[in-house]
Amino acid sequence: MRTRTWVIGGVLLxxxxxxxxxxxxxxxxxxxxxxxxxxxxxxxTVIRDEKGMASVHAQSLGDALLAWGFVTAQDRLFQMExxxxxxxxxxxxxxxxxxxxxxxxxxxxxxxxxAARHAGMLDDETQHAFQQYARGVNAYITxxxxxxxxxxxxxxxxxxxxxxADCLAIFYYMSWxxxxxxxxxxxxxxLVDTLGAQRAREIFPLNINPDDPADSVTxxxxxxQAAGEPLRVTSDGRLMALLRDHRLExxxxxxxxxxxxxxxxxPMVADDPHLDARILPGPWYPVxxxxxxxxxxxxxxxxxxxxxxxxxxxxxxxxTNAYGDAQDLYIETLDPEAPDCYLEGERSIPFQVIxxxxxxxxxxxxxxxxxxTVRIRCTRRGPVVSNVxxxxxxxxxxxxxxxxxxxxGPSLGMDRLLRAESVWDVxxxxxxxxxxxxxxxxxxxxxxxxxxxxxxxxxxxxGDGTLPFLVTDGKDNWSGWIPYHEMPHAYNPxxxxxxxxxxAVTGRDYPYYYSSHQAPSYRYRRVKELLAAPGTRSAEDFxxxxxxxxxxxxxxxxPILADALRGREETEDMAWVLGGWDFRDEPDQAAPTLFHxxxxxAAYLTxxxxxxxxxxxxxxxxxxxxxxxxxxxxQEKDLDWFDDKATSGVREDRDALILRAARDxxxxxxxxxxxxxxxxxxxxxxxxxxxxxxxxxxxxxxxxGGGTHAVPGSVETLCRGYYDFNAPFDVEVFDSLRMVADLGxxxxxxxxxxxxxxxxxxxxxxxxxxxxxxxxxxxxxxFSDRAIQExxxxxxxxxxxx
Length: 802
Description:
Helix content is 33%, strand content 20%. By secondary structure, it is an alpha+beta fold. It has a domain at 552-583 and 590-680. Helix 6 packs across helix 9, helix 17 packs across helix 22 and helix 19 (591-611) crosses helix 20 (613-620). The longest helix is centred in the first third of the chain and has 27 residues, at 61-87. The protein starts with a helix and ends with a strand.
């Protein structure tokens, strides 16, 4: 979501901020009394607690879904509208020319176009669920105009009616960010073009599954085809723009333990999805739904009526990104005799051409709007996403194929998760979750636990998905789909727990290629350490685990850095700090600053002389591509990669590289942090800033935002503090939610957001959870009738209109 909000933040004005700030009530909605709502069959009671979270009490699931849409719109309508405009390729209606290129890319990918197609396929049950939610959103839009968020006035736009296709467009947008591995393919092709196939393979990704025997390494079987000449993918503006919009900034940890491990004698589930949640109020919206047949508390992305993280009376579940590879880039050859055709062997095939009209805000145009027609060319695999790549013999283009557009079905499965009564119900529902690649971890009150990867992935007949595939004839490298029951999964393992951390979950004996873009194994190794210890765990124990800062990668590498720096006057102080470190990335320690700064600079120095600065930084910006590989390289002292090709007559080894990296770090940080490296505290450089979507920078940013905070953790720890490699150390991705559900606790679920429930300027519940989130304080979703009533702050009755 970063690109969307960054564009908008530069466009919206702070008109009349002083007036609005003087009266916080001017951006509120009705929370008490009664309201008449169209579409309800019976009254619905909405009870809000001390943090503004709504508990919806209805007599039927249909009414609960409608009220769910209504209360979500009350709190998050502006956020929903921005997300919809982004997913549908309509941001230029708001932001003008600044968003035009982004809209062209979104139209090319076709989320809204394919969502409309999918909406016509849904079965009656799924269609009804989405329609009821959309009706609730529309009831708020039409019946409560006087309480719409003032952000609409500041932005100069109005909310539009919601449709099922709008909801599905958001679903596909979210799914796009769970699909690997577009960035990996472009980086890998860049390496082949630059280094040649053999040398490029030496630094292709390593994916390690710590649960596999002997800690085996899964190396992809990349099919390196001869394209005839380098593709020079990094010089293509369209590909690089697509890459910037697809940074895969989604992570997460989740785990579940069986009844023997839970302190209350029932299973527990913990989940903390990692997203860019800097834009207030954060991406997740929490709600509790209660009917005579259902009681469920969880979160959803506003605009999409599906709770992937929840607890009901029978089950609890959480998610991580599985990074299942559902997309491939194809190198297609243009027909030199027919410019509107492409070749499959000697066969010339016309491109399918799709035309879409973009409306662009323009003060110079009549009615301040101009229109532009976008012409999208598609092969049978997907849309063209590159410019023409000139070759020595034949020109080429690159197309994108994405599995969710080929695996649409009548059910999304997500609505059935709300009603699951056992892990087996969850398993059955996930069989229909084709379009999003997630690791679901779950447990039920009977003591069962499970994990299953969702999504439908292609069976590739030629190599894996690490590199773009060169189309040479009419044969397709997608030969079918991995059967659902052969997707990675586990049920009731003997060790008594299941868990994932975006790592490689398949081993050498897995019969299919799953992905070459997986997180390094560090976070999962730490989960194993914590859960393997004997004894039971409480919800509070899991709450502490989610803020764990132990860096298991640093345990291996920091001593190597310290040894290389020891005994030298210029770096002895650094060696002393690193030598006394407990390997925890805590804000009040200096060692994390030294470790990350030196280690990451060493990675840059290792590759920049072979690749050049720009290409090295492109590769290093994809942490998952190089980290596991580089850690193994650093455990060897004398590799050719460590030698600086720019120096002649001298062969540098690893320790010389570390020394140079330490000098570079001192030159970079000493001017701002001082000469005493013991005072280079992690909390001084590793910081997180919460901002408003309407004022990200400039005058008024501090007034509207949630402040800047020192952040524990790092890229490698359970308490995530992910930053752009090329812009250290400002945190971009972190825990967007922390949730611990103890199925032995009938009253509550531990859960906190790094923002709040409401998404309204100056609303008291937009940023009220930042403080407990940053400090690890306990916050709850109230679950039982007794707990909900005890914590009731406001009650609103929604009456059937007419």
